[in-house]
Amino acid sequence: MKQRLSLYELNSMVRDALSMTLPDSYWVEAELSEVREGYGGHCYMELIEKEERSNTPIAKAHAACWRNRWISIRPQFEQVTGQRLHAGMKVLLKVHAQFHENYGFSWIVDDIDPNYTMGDMARKRQEIIRTLKEEGVFDLQKELALPMFCQRIAVVSSATAAGYGDFCNQLAGNDYGLQFKTGLFAATMQGEGVEQSVIAALNRIDAEYEDWDCVVIIRGGGATSDLSGFDTLALAENVANFPLPIITGIGHERDESVLDMISFQKVKTPTAAAAFLVQHLTDVYVRVMEAQETIVQNVKHRLQVEKMRLDRLNKSIPVQFSLVKTRQGAYIDRLMNRLSQQVLSKVADAQRKLEIISQNVQPVLERKMMSESHRLQMLEQRIRSQDPELLLKRGYSITLRNGKSVRSASLLTSGDVIITRFAEGTVKSKVE
User: Fold this and answer.
1) Cα–Cα nearest to 281, from 356, 418, 181
2) Residue 360: inside a domain, yes or no?
3) Strand-pair category, 90-100 with 57-65
4) Do residues 250 and 271 make contact, with C-beta atoms less than 8 angstroms apart?
5) 394 pLDDT exceeds 90?
6) To which protein family does this belong (predicted)?
7) Domain of 280?
8) Number of structural domains, the chain?
9) pTM (2 d.p.)
């Protein structure tokens, strides 16, 4: 009959074999494919190793860090790296093997070397920077200019972040009473969704970029963990190629992120971002006031110069007028003399011409007058010969009807009253 073991007995044998075979702790390089904190404060990790060329998984394992170790490992790791453990991160773990009869095999984490992760993060960051420089976009944001009156601010932040409220309060409460318009484009600012969420917010701003002067990406809160989302190539490319200046204030206290490097201006905190914008507009306000004062002073100076010039002109006017009057008087006298001489000359010429014409016209007039006189005499004789009085004296008479002479009897009708005029007297008759 075959020897039989219970599952518990078999697992106990495996546990004893592992404890004798792998009694020590080992440093192991791996990539985290999943990290989660469970009930009771323990941390559970899924480890993976990928083939370098094909990125195909070639090894997987489960690891756990018990609460008593995790409460000291976690703060030290986050303090050094500025990030929380998250999927995709490469880590160097100190582990020992453990096989539990009930839960099976797992690697128990005794320690995590943050310097290894820092080195891997730095390597990835340098790869991103090199790619951006090769694409020629690393300095594009630096070539932009912040508008002189930069008052319309598009803000990428979590709507509930304390930093967003601090930013708005800092803008609204500035000492100069400068006015700003802000618009929130909400995004996830920590965890694995940072990259896609911020890119989506930037896309929304880009759709209405003419309504904004600049973009501020801020992250509130005092913790500096969960910032790996700001060290990605896709987000860096979006920011580098954005048409508006981008100011970052995402709370890095140690090394700057790639996003900080390629942005138009980096500051540490949201309030520092607000202070930067207030200072920029304040500088513009001061420049405007200085320009205004300069213009006023220049106008005053110009007015003074012109007043002095007018005063000098006013004083010189009598003298100038006297000189002009004298010159013009002399000029007019010369003109009058010339005019008088020309008039006298013209009058003399006209008199000479009149004398010549008079000498030539007089004989003609005399002949004309004699001829007209003779013609008048002839007309007078003819008129006298036609005088009705002479005809009447010769025995002729004139018959009148209604004051008009009657030349034919056919012109008369029965009953007409006619008057016959003789040399001496008249006769009134009635035609029958």
Assistant:
1) 181
2) no
3) unpaired
4) no
5) no
6) Belongs to the XseA family.
7) 142-284
8) 3
9) 0.55
